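Thread: Newbie trying to understand structure tokens

Hi all, I'm a second-year student working on a class project, and my supervisor (Dr. K.) asked me to get a predicted structure for one chain before our next meeting. I've only ever worked with sequences, so writing a 3D structure as a token string is new to me. If someone could post the tokens and maybe explain what I'm looking at, I'd be very grateful. Here's the chain:
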Amino acid sequence: MLNIKCPYCGDRSQKEFAYGGDGTITRPKLNQEISDEEWDNFVYLRKSPRGKHIELWHHIAGCRQWFKVERDTTTHEIFRTFKPEE
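---
Reply by user tm_fold:
Sure, no problem. This is what the structure looks like when written as tokens:
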């Protein structure tokens, strides 16, 4: 079981959180035309990185805030957590 430090609430059990996906992907800009292939790539194509990676997490059983986690995907070691705008 992981303990995750919510940047808003502090240390909590992993059970309080939901994984939100890759934290490095940028959504296409609103009101801008993109091809079907570009949209398909944004929605469906994801890498499965090994090692240190930035992820999005949601504190569903606490403050309900989204934040980012820098975590090693092979060892599950968490290096830091931070607010999305940081």
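A couple of things are worth pointing out once you decode it. The CA atoms of residues 44 and 59 lie 24 Å apart. The mean pLDDT is 94. Feel free to ask follow-ups in this thread.
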